[in-house]
Amino acid sequence: MSHPFSRSAVWGSARPSLAPLFLASVTLLAIGSASCAPSVRAPVHLDCSTVKMSALPPATPLMAFEGFSITPPQADQWCVEHLDKKIGAIFVTNPLIGQTLTAMPPAEDQSHTLAAAVMAVYLDQPVFDDTALRDFVARWLGSGQLSQVREGHQVLESSSTTPHRFTLVESNVVIDESPNCIRYDATFEERDNPHFPGQVLILVEKANLLCRVPGSKTGELVMIGASERYPQARPPAWKYMDTARGELDAFTRSLRFPAAP
Fold it and tell me: How many alpha carbons lie under 13 Å from residue 59 in its C-beta half-sphere?
């Protein structure tokens, strides 16, 4: 079982089946194992290359995937965690990107991340209308947003008896005004994150979309939206879901499907 937008759940030739989707799956700062240490001897400028990702140039134009297109986040300081023209993309950022560090930043700064992602997915049971899709999303959120890779496809699981790291705190699921789309907000608690042992992390998603692909004969859907992560015990003074709301909404609403022939 996995979260569908996890780095290890989706990408790479091995396609392992266990890891956390939209829950900012990235531990953006592997500083301790990279060029910094608890006491930094020389200033280190932190950018996307420092954390072994590529930079997303500001105002990057339309990106086309198989069966859909999006406009990626338009501000600076975004990194590309993964990009696959068949599956989708994950873009991530962190408050420390673009800064010059002279000491190891506190764990709460390292764990404050934002992911914006788009992905082709399937469901573990057939859904034929918006009401059924809305009900499925509610169950899926309750399961901890789990998924499995089946025959090369990311499949959302509506229920699970397997213990996992994510517990739903609250959610709101509605039929969106866009055709064939469900909009949802969700807040999760994450425990047992191997990068932040002993911490409880909060993960927040707002106005994310799950949309049926028009005319698909295989039941394909596309998920798009953003997820913010931060420590429960020491929440940040500001949150991306407030300061970057306009940019995130523009990203989510940029999803387009090609016109029917």
Answer: 0
Would you say residue 257 lies in a domain? no
Asked whether the beta carbons of 236 and 108 are under 8 A apart, the reply is yes
Structural domain that includes position 17: 7-252
Structure tokens at 200: 């409880």
Please list the alpha-helical segments (H only) found in the chain: 7-10, 107-110, 130-142, 240-243, 245-252
Closest CA to 144 of 114, 191, 188, 205: 188
- As given in the structure block, the two tokens for residue 204 are 């927040």
Tell whether 127 is covered by a domain.
yes
First to last CA, the chain: 37
Closest CA to 143 of 155, 132, 156, 159: 159
Distance CA 111, CA 105 (A): 10
Number of domains comprising the chain: 1
Instruction: Report the alpha-carbon distance of residue 48 to residue 55 in Å, rounded.
Output: 5
Q: Kindly report, residue by residue over 5-50, the tens digit of the pLDDT.
A: 443 333 332 222 223 344 444 445 544 433 444 455 668 888 898 8
Contact 241, 228 (CB under 8 A): yes
CA distance 51 to 40: 16
Assess if residue 258 is contained within a domain.
no
